[in-house]
Amino acid sequence: MTDTHTTPTPGTEAVATPGPAPATPDATTREADLAAIRRVVSDASTHQSDPERFLPLYTPDASVVNFGGRRVLGRDALEQAMHAALASPLAKVLTTVEILDVRFVRPDVAVVVSVKHVSDEREESEGKPLPGTSGSLTHVLEKSGEPDTGWRITHSQTTPILS
What we know:
The chain is an alpha+beta fold. The protein is built from three helices and eight strands, in the order E-E-H-H-E-E-H-E-E-E-E. Strand 3 and strand 4 (71-73) form a beta hairpin.
């Protein structure tokens, strides 16, 4: 999206003109951003059972669509869903994430494509089986301009891979 601003021209109506293009990060900044993005995605996988460490990895308005297709909007709702899941047999469903690709939409927005590998350790009586043992996981991360915030997940969706 190109920013526009209005430039008044004497004797005419205002005309929209493109604003400055976002600065292209240098190679050092890009590598640091890639490392930070990979760390956030890795931390989200590592801390999937620890709400105190997991939730700050998400923006307050994050949207998450889980493996089962349930949509959760906002970090507060995500916290409630996490606590409910961790108090149920779903606490025995653990995942690992393999990052396949990171693409920058803008210098402050990245899309991460991954495969989520599922380990379902529940007993048969504890719930219906999951639709697959892996899923296509896509995260959208944004880099905050606020100090000490860095990259955070703003959207996440997992789609089961059916055999």
